[in-house]
């Protein structure tokens, strides 16, 4: 029976991350969620897609068109 | 709406070059909060990206009508909540998702006054998501809104269609439910302080 002696690269990375990880204490659920929110970035693809969508939107009515309902 | 950018105005971020500076600034300031709410409320990265896009596109269509009766953040949250609720209703109709039983958490041995301890690893986000997923959508939404320091209890109450007192009461239960689910999400590895002594 083969015995596993070496860690795979991904296992090594996980072990390194684990070693470097620090224990944090959060006073409340809200504080934990705020910390979590601070770690999240909006993927740039969202802005790119929105940019394209806005470009393809019909031009808005001018103020007098809205006023007269035309 | 004038879409030209004149000299002297702040540069429009390249990602939203199609939008006028005021809308681009709105996106810059609030997109993170909107994406985070959608991400943790829906529990899916791709759907949160879609939702963020859809929310801001809707906001773009209504931008000229926004009069500032509410803060921009509250206005965007309202659009986000409606959008996410519609999405969840559609999934529920398709998949017959069962609701989480509140009663399970009412008796759960977790305290809301105990600090939550966690290792700062990339799995922390998943643990938080797992804990939120275990809550009812209402509890999940309340916790996410109240966690935003820009939101007052009054605004949260208005957004969720209830009184401030109701929000406070439900928040207490939501925190308790979250603490229990968070502790349960990684039994044996992490622990909620004083969990074993909690009543």
How would you explain this protein's 3D organization?
The complex is a heterodimer of chains A (70) and B (199). With 70 residues, chain A is mainly alpha-helical. Helix content of chain A is 60%, strand content 6%. Chain A has 4 helices and 1 strand. The longest helix of chain A is centred in the last third of the chain and has 13 residues, at 44-56. The mean pLDDT of chain A is 78. With 199 residues, chain B is an all-alpha fold. In chain B, helix 1 runs parallel beside helix 3 (72-95). Chain B is globular, with a radius of gyration of 19 Å. The chains are: A mainly alpha (70), B mainly alpha (199). Chains A and B meet through strand 1, helix 2 and helix 3 of A and helix 1, helix 2, strand 1, helix 5 and helix 6 of B. Strand 1 (23-26) of chain A pairs antiparallel with strand 1 of chain B.
Short structural summary:
The complex is a heterodimer of chains A (70) and B (199). Chain A is mainly α.
Features:
heterodimer, A: 70 residues, mainly alpha, 4 helices, 60% helix, 6% strand, flat, B: 199 residues, globular, disordered N terminus
Outline the secondary-structure elements.
The complex is a heterodimer of chains A (70) and B (199).
Chain A: H1 9-20, E1 23-26, H2 29-39, H3 44-56, H4 63-68
Chain B: H1 21-42, H2 45-62, H3 72-95, H4 102-106, E1 116-119, H5 123-133, H6 137-147, H7 153-160, H8 164-184
Helix pairs in contact in B: 1-2, 1-3, 2-3, 5-8, 6-8, 7-8
């Amino acid at each position: 029976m083969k015995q596993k002696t070496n860690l795979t690269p991904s296992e090594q990375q996980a072990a390194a991350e684990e070693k470097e990880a620090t224990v944090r204490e959060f006073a409340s659920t809200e504080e934990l969620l705020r910390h979590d929110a601070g770690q999240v970035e909006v993927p740039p693809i969202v802005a790119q897609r929105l940019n394209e969508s806005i470009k393809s939107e019909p031009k808005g009515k001018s103020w007098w068109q809205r006023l007269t309902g035309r | 709406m004038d879409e030209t950018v004149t000299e002297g105005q702040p540069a429009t971020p390249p990602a939203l070059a199609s939008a006028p500076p005021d809308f681009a600034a709105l996106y810059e300031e609030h997109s993170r909060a909107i994406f985070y709410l959608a991400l943790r409320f829906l529990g899916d990265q791709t759907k949160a990206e879609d939702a963020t896009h859809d929310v801001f596109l809707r906001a773009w269509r209504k931008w000229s009508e926004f009069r500032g009766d509410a803060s921009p953040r509250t206005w965007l949250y309202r659009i986000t909540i409606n959008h996410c609720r519609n999405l969840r209703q559609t999934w529920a109709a398709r998949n017959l998702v069962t609701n989480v039983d509140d009663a399970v958490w009412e008796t759960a041995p977790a305290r809301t006054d105990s600090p939550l301890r966690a290792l700062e690893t990339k799995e922390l986000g998943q643990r938080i998501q797992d804990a939120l997923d275990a809550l009812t959508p209402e509890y999940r939404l309340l916790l996410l809104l109240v966690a935003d320091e820009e939101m007052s209890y009054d605004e949260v109450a208005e957004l969720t269609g209830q009184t401030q007192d109701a929000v406070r009461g439900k928040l207490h239960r939501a925190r308790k439910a979250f603490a229990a689910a968070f502790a349960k999400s990684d039994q044996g590895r992490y622990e909620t302080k004083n969990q074993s002594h909690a009543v």
